[in-house]
Amino acid sequence: MSYASDARRELAAEAPGEPCCARAELAAALLFSGGISFQGVGRYSLQILSPDAFVVRHYFLLVKRLFGVSCQIRTLRTTQLKGLTRYQLVIPQEHAADVLAQCDLLDREALFGIRATPSEDALNYACCKRAFLRGAFLLVGAVSNPEKGYHLEFAAPNAPLAEIVIKSLNYFEISAKKACRKAKFVVYLKGGEQIADALALLGAKNAMMALENVRVKKDVGNRINRQINCDERNMQRQLENAEAQIEDILLIEREMGLGKLPRSLREIARVREEHPDSPLSALGEFLDPPLGKSGVNSRLRRLRSIAEKLRSGEDLDV
Ligand SMILES: [Zn+2]
Predict the structure, then answer these.
(1) How close is the Cα of 38 to the center of ligand 1, in Å?
(2) CA 124 to ligand 1 center in whole angstroms
(3) How far apart are alpha carbons 204 and 223 in whole angstroms?
(4) Contact at 8 Å (CB) between 149 and 192?
(5) Distance CA 98, CA 315 (A)
(6) Choices 3.40.50.20, 3.10.28.10, 3.30.300.30, 3.40.50.300: CATH for 3-203
(7) How far apart are the CA of 287 and the centre of ligand 1, in A?
(8) Is the pLDDT reported for residue 1 higher than 70?
(9) How close is the Cα of 18 to the center of ligand 1, in Å?
């Protein structure tokens, strides 16, 4: 079973909430599955089509509980559907107009008297906005397996519905982007945190936990990689410093001879030449008595300043 289908199954298993939310969720299912059609004045046909039997069953129970109406469930498999099975919930025609009215989807001003998007009133409450998003996700939602990448989307059948999805997500402080793809208006989220928030909002807690587990694993992996990169950079810098120090020492040797240096500098110059790859802390161990990292550093800096004076021809005062 895919991660996306598990997430939808989890949502479908949840019982519909308050009547206001159940109506908002049903409105979403009808609108997003494009299942409302006009059959003549006051006559409509209502259906919900989904590849998931559990989604159709969920709406069967919702309609039963909300209106006391038993719907018909059909199984479709045609060459038009490329041999794929689709499940269809058909709301009995004699109840269709009432269901549309209860879901606030009738509007005399609209084409054929049917609203293309839910009314403002229907999505007035946060609980109903959430239910509307759940309905949309059950019908046209997808989420990629977090092991492979972070992507969650709603493929809306038209632009106004896509806008309502974006507005509803924004209401819960989840930002979304939109794109057109194969005649669908796709609203999508990127980023593990956004998607985890969206799954939690929809109520897919197990899917959200699975995603968080992957995020934690990836985060630890990234931290280890960052540490490795950081170590590599430090090592590189150390090698470059050692090379410059050896160049200084060779210059001093050539121009004035190491014998003219005070003993402390002569010693560190010898040790650096003998151990070109050692870090400063290890270099101090070769001295007698041993010297700490900052002491080694200060002596090497004095060598650097002598070498620089030699390079620029300044007077030396060793
Ligand atoms: Zn509500």
Answers:
(1) 27
(2) 8
(3) 28
(4) no
(5) 101
(6) 3.10.28.10
(7) 78
(8) no
(9) 6
Compute the C-alpha angle 20/24/29, nearest 5°: 145
Ion ligand 1: residues, Cβ under 5 Å:
18, 20-21, 125, 127-128
Kindly list the domain boundaries of the chain, sorted by start residue: 3-203, 236-312
d(CA 292, CA 10): 62
pLDDT tens digits, one per residue of 20-60: 999 999 999 999 998 888 888 888 999 999 999 999 999 99
- Residue 318 pLDDT: 62
Phi, psi of 52 (to 5 degrees): -105, 120
Per-residue pLDDT of 191-204, as tens digits, reads 888 999 999 999 99
| pLDDT per residue as tens digits for the range 246-281 | 999 999 999 888 888 999 999 999 999 888 888 888
- How many C-beta atoms surround the C-beta of residue 276 within 10 A? 11
The alpha carbon of 128 and the centre of ligand 1 are apart by a number of angstroms equal to: 4
pTM: 0.71
